[in-house]
Amino acid sequence: MNARFPTFRCTSTLKGHTRPLNVLKISPDGRLLLSGADDGEIKIWKLYSDGAGQLPVQSLPSQGFGAVYAATWASGPEVGSKASIIVVGTSSGRVFVYMWDPVEYKLSDFRDAHAKRVDDLAFDPTFRHLATAGNGEVIIWKLSVKGNLEKTQLSVPAVKSADISRIFFYDRGSTLIVCYRENHSCTAYQVHPWNLKWNVKLPSRIGYASVGSDKHLFVTNLFDGVDVYSLPPRVPVEHYTHPILQNRPIQVSPVSGSIVAIGSEDGHVVIWNWRTNEKAEVTHANRGVPVQVVDACEHQAGFLIASGSSEYGTEPVIKLWSSLPDKRSTDLRAPRADHDPTAPISLSISQLIILLVFCLYGNSIVSYLGTLTSPLIEYILQIFNYLREALPV
């Protein structure tokens, strides 16, 4: 396998739910994991600490309003913002908001958003809009920094007999995309002012969908695998084939750039680079146990994937997978937002060789350049003179 393709290893195994998992969400700051399941529990797990993953740091009941089907973190627009608010959607159609209050998350608001279960939630930190999907319709709310919900005049009318599989904000909150499972539709709305942008019929059903940082749409098609589209979607630009045994909506989550994590029905998680068509598998559970739930992000040391099993009769298990990709890769890693400018400078072998050559032959190089004339050569000469003064040549 290409050395640039990341290798993942299991770093934690988390247990605590009693019924199949429906949602996993890694917090924007990469410190916490939220899990929701058919047992009506929301559990919060701390990542990257000694003994992390053995027990949840907090469990939040859905107040007796059924299974947890959707959840999202609601943080500020800054990269790595603290995960101060959690929003949860239940099978009863009620939405709960929990806010961090010095030492734990506490209920701050709730709304009866939909007549049936909440199928999905999406939060836009730029305008602090919360979108809730259920019963074929989408409602837009304003979520305050204090954890209070206020219904706006923006909404997507209910589509008769339509099952919404996924909603998400796009283009810094200026666009809302709605995916419908059975009628193949993928629809985009402009938020300010509210207006229909486009409506496209895909060639397949939409079991689940996600948008990557490179602005591509990943769709599990409930037929033979995952399709990759440019936006707006027309024809798949790439396809990953995997067996569909029981028509389950397998989740797919962008990891970073061109890499995505894909669940399965056979106990594995697939890591796929759709540009190079490289792939790897990690074993989450025994063959035959569906791993429908996945989430992924890029963290300080590499990539992180969370996967969850979702089969009645077996104990739900969450596993965390971490990688340390090759730092030479340009398409698998994004620039580090938390770079410390005071940290010591590290040089590669080739850089050290160049520096050594200059130290040994710097005077000769400068003397030769001094015999040439051109603005570019003069500029290079100034740089060499600066380096000669700064280094012990």
State the helicity in percent bands: under 10%
Overall geometry comes to globular
How far is the N terminus from the C terminus?
Answer: 43 Å
Oligomer: single chain
Read across the widest sheet, the strand sequence of neighbours is: 1-28-27-26
Notable features of this structure?
single chain; 393 residues; mainly beta; four-stranded antiparallel sheet; 2 helices; 28 strands; 10% helix; 43% strand; disordered C terminus
List the helices and strands and how they pair.
Layout: E1 8-14, E2 21-26, E3 32-37, E4 41-46, E5 58-61, E6 68-73, E7 85-90, E8 94-101, E9 104-112, E10 120-124, E11 129-134, E12 137-143, E13 149-156, E14 164-170, E15 175-180, E16 185-190, E17 195-201, E18 208-211, E19 216-220, E20 225-230, E21 238-241, E22 252-256, E23 259-262, E24 268-273, E25 278-283, E26 293-299, E27 302-308, E28 318-323, H1 349-370, H2 375-390
Antiparallel strand pairs: 1-28, 2-3, 3-4, 4-5, 6-7, 7-8, 8-9, 10-11, 11-12, 12-13, 14-15, 15-16, 16-17, 18-19, 19-20, 20-21, 22-23, 23-24, 24-25, 26-27, 27-28
